[in-house]
Design a protein that fits this description.
Helix content: 25-40%
Shape: elongated
Structural class: mainly alpha
Largest sheet: none
Order of helices and strands: HH
Radius of gyration: 16 Å
Amino acid sequence: MTDEATGLSQGEQGGKRLAVVVDVNGQPASGRVPLHYAVEDAKVMAQGLQREVCGLE
């Protein structure tokens, strides 16, 4: 895959690739249904993103 901004592939870019995964359980915003599984979903997403194929830490 090539980065559109730099024209470099993931291997050519070097450096760290990071992702931020945010979870929010608890009190919902007014008029919204509370989330019950956001923390668990975020953990599973983080595990998936840490797979070598994704190239993220």
